[in-house]
Amino acid sequence: MDSMTSIAIASIITAGLTTSVGCMMPAISEGKAVAAALSSIAQQPDAAPIITRTLFVGLAMIESTAIYCFVVSMILIFANPFWTHIVAK
Amino acid sequence: MDSMTSIAIASIITAGLTTSVGCMMPAISEGKAVAAALSSIAQQPDAAPIITRTLFVGLAMIESTAIYCFVVSMILIFANPFWTHIVAK
Amino acid sequence: MDSMTSIAIASIITAGLTTSVGCMMPAISEGKAVAAALSSIAQQPDAAPIITRTLFVGLAMIESTAIYCFVVSMILIFANPFWTHIVAK
Amino acid sequence: MDSMTSIAIASIITAGLTTSVGCMMPAISEGKAVAAALSSIAQQPDAAPIITRTLFVGLAMIESTAIYCFVVSMILIFANPFWTHIVAK
Amino acid sequence: MDSMTSIAIASIITAGLTTSVGCMMPAISEGKAVAAALSSIAQQPDAAPIITRTLFVGLAMIESTAIYCFVVSMILIFANPFWTHIVAK
Amino acid sequence: MDSMTSIAIASIITAGLTTSVGCMMPAISEGKAVAAALSSIAQQPDAAPIITRTLFVGLAMIESTAIYCFVVSMILIFANPFWTHIVAK
Amino acid sequence: MDSMTSIAIASIITAGLTTSVGCMMPAISEGKAVAAALSSIAQQPDAAPIITRTLFVGLAMIESTAIYCFVVSMILIFANPFWTHIVAK
Amino acid sequence: MDSMTSIAIASIITAGLTTSVGCMMPAISEGKAVAAALSSIAQQPDAAPIITRTLFVGLAMIESTAIYCFVVSMILIFANPFWTHIVAK
Amino acid sequence: MDSMTSIAIASIITAGLTTSVGCMMPAISEGKAVAAALSSIAQQPDAAPIITRTLFVGLAMIESTAIYCFVVSMILIFANPFWTHIVAK
Amino acid sequence: MDSMTSIAIASIITAGLTTSVGCMMPAISEGKAVAAALSSIAQQPDAAPIITRTLFVGLAMIESTAIYCFVVSMILIFANPFWTHIVAK
Amino acid sequence: MDSMTSIAIASIITAGLTTSVGCMMPAISEGKAVAAALSSIAQQPDAAPIITRTLFVGLAMIESTAIYCFVVSMILIFANPFWTHIVAK
Amino acid sequence: MDSMTSIAIASIITAGLTTSVGCMMPAISEGKAVAAALSSIAQQPDAAPIITRTLFVGLAMIESTAIYCFVVSMILIFANPFWTHIVAK
Amino acid sequence: MDSMTSIAIASIITAGLTTSVGCMMPAISEGKAVAAALSSIAQQPDAAPIITRTLFVGLAMIESTAIYCFVVSMILIFANPFWTHIVAK
Amino acid sequence: MDSMTSIAIASIITAGLTTSVGCMMPAISEGKAVAAALSSIAQQPDAAPIITRTLFVGLAMIESTAIYCFVVSMILIFANPFWTHIVAK
């Protein structure tokens, strides 16, 4: 295979894996946080406002790691410096 | 194999794996959240409205990671820039 | 192997794996949700209507991730753009 | 190996794996749901009708993911478009 | 290896793996269901009739996924369309 | 290797693996069921007859999945249609 | 390697693996059953006769899956039809 | 493949893997911390301020390990000294 | 490698693996049984005689699966029919 | 590949893996420590000062293992003695 | 490699693996038994003599599986019949 | 590849792996110890001095295993006797 | 590679693996025993002498399995009969 | 590769792996022992002297297995008899 094809293939596979692998654990983790929130509300309905507020901050933090992976994945597909360099050559 | 075929194969395999692997953990996670919601309702029926509302927000957050994977998968099948470049050449 | 055969093989294997791997966790997850629903009903029979309603919404959300995988699998078998392109050529 | 043989082999292996892997988790999941149903009946015999009804709906949902895999497997053995195309050629 | 041998080998290996892998989880699952049934009977002997009835329905559902795998396995050994096609040729 | 040897080797390995892998989980599962039965008898000695009866039915169901694997294994060793076909040729 | 050597090697490796892998889970399972029996006797010494009787029946069932594997292993070493066929030739 | 291509491919794959693998555990860990925070608030609503403060410090520490991986990943894509050296040559 | 060497190597490796893998789970299982026996004696010192008797019968059953593996291993080293056949030739 | 390229590739891959693998467990471990701190504060709000102080010392110790990995990773990218030696040659 | 070297290497590797793998589980198992013994003594100091006696019998049984592996390992290093045969030749 | 390059590559990869793998478990272990310390302080605030003192001694012991790995890693990068020997030659 | 080198390499790798793998589980197991001893002392301080005595006997038994692996490892490095034979030749 | 290089590479990789793998479990195990010690002190502050003394003896035993691995590792790097033999030649 020539250089261009090899880099294209590596980018495709890596982009897919980065998103799929990188989204696994944030998903698990958000499920855990949501489940804890629901149990906590059931246990202490009066604290629902502060619980949901803390939950949303936490979900945002967790989601950020999924975002990192999605960003790397998009960079590899649409703004890949190695691909740009090879194509430009 | 020529360049076109290699890229097509890499895209097909990656698209399939990205969706299937990326949907595993959101599914688990939603099951966990739903299970927690059901237990919470059984424990505190009066808090059912706020529990189901929090549940739906949480499910939407979790589903979003599955959506990322599905989106990457669709990009690889229907809007693959590397494939477009090779075909155009 | 020629291009056509390679793409056909990649599509067959990926379609099978996508469905089988992608259906594993939704199945587990639905089992978990159903089990939680049954325990909740046994614990609080009066809340059965809201529990089953929440359960069905949850099952629909979980099933959706299995549907994504099945859809990708069907696209790869019956509406594969790479195969169409190679055959057309 | 020629094209026909390769596609046949890929179809055979994928069909077998899709069914066997895809049936693992629904089986586990149904066992979990049945076990939960039995414990629930033992705990609350009066709610047996609604528990068994919810159980059967849940089992049908879980079985559906096993059915998807079996369907893909049957398509690959008896209605494989790639095989049809190669044979027709 | 010639085509016939390759297809025979793939069929043999896949048939064996499909049955052995596909029977693992139904076996685990049935054990879980039976164990739950026994505990439930010990806890609530009066509900034994409905528990054993629900158990048998559940075992039938779980066994069905093992049957799918056994059926695919038998198809691959005794009614393999690819083998038939190659032999006929 | 010639065709006959390849098929013989594949049959030997598959037969061994099918039995050994396929017997793992039924064994675990029967142990679980027996353990549950023993605990149940210790907890409710009066229900021993119905517990042992349910246990034996359950063990028979579980053993059946091990039997499937043993049958496939015996077919591959002593009634292998592919081997018969090659030898006949 | 010639045919005879290949089949001999496959038989040796498969025989060893079948016994060692196939004996793992029955061993675990018997340990579980024995442990449950001991706890049950400690909890309900009066039920010792029926507990040990049920234990022995259960151990026999579990041992049977180990026996299947040992039998397949012995067949492969001392009564291997493929080896007999090749040697006879 | 020439040197430039090899280094480009290694950088792409490593960058993707570093981010995706390195973000898995921080995500899990943040989910655990958030879940513990929510349970703690439900248990002791009066301590909510100190709990959320400790939570945020902890999340920052955990996030830092994800940041290390993201930084290494960005260095490999946009400031790779080996790539610079090869290109300069 | 010639036939004799190949069979010798396969026998050596298989003999070692069969014993080491096959002794893993019986060891675990005996530890479990002994641990259960010790707890049971501590809980019910009066039942020590019947507990130790049941323990020894159980240990003998569990040890038997390790013996199977050791026997197969010794057969492969000292009474290997395939080696005998090759040497005789 | 020439020496320079090989060493560059090995350094890139190792640097990425060292950081990503080496940051996994510290992240998990910090999450565990933070979760324990939060539960402890909820249980004993009066001991919050000493708990947070012990937590921060502990987090620093745990973070140190992640730092080791990050340092090795940076050495491999920016101060690699083997690369320096090859380049100097 | 010539026959002698191959057999020597296979013996070395197998001897090492057999001992190391085969000693893993007995070690775990003895730890479990010792831990159970210590807890039992703490719970029932009066039964210490019978507990330690049962413990030592159990440890001997568990150690026996490690001994099997060590024996096979020593046979392979110092009394290997295949090596003897090749050397004699 | 020539000798120098091979040794350099082996040293780089091994150094990275040794640090990253060797730091995983000490990190987990320190997290466990810190978590236990925090729970213990919350349970018995009066014993805080002796608990933190024992904790720090324990952390030092655990950190020592991570130090061993870091030391081996540094030896391989900066004081590798094999590399010195080859370079000197 | 010539015979001497091959045997040297196999001995080096096996010696390292035997010690490292073989020391894993005894370490875990001793930790478990020590932890159980500490809990037992805390629960029953009066029984400390007999607990520590039983602990030391148990630790010696567990350490013995690590010693077996270390011995095999030392034999392979310093008293390897195969190496001696090849060198003598 | 020549003999010297091969042995050097095998020694480097094995030394690294032996230390890193061999230090994993002692680290875990020490963490477990320390955690148990801390809980025990919190539960029974009066027994702190004997608990810490038993802890240090236990840690020394556990550390010894890590020392074995470190020693083997150092022997392979600085006192490798095979390397000495090859270099001397």
Description:
The structure is a homo-oligomer of 14 chains of 89-residue chains. With 89 residues, chain A is an all-alpha fold. Helices cover 90% and strands 0% of the residues of chain A. The first copy, chain A, contains three helices and no strands. Chain A has helices at residues 3-43, 48-78, 81-88. In chain A, helix 1 runs antiparallel to helix 2. Chain A is rod-shaped. The mean pLDDT of chain A is 92. At the A-B interface, helix 1 and helix 2 of A face helix 1, helix 2 and helix 3 of B.
Descriptive keywords:
3 helices, mainly alpha, 89 residues, 0% strand, homo-oligomer of 14 chains, rod-shaped
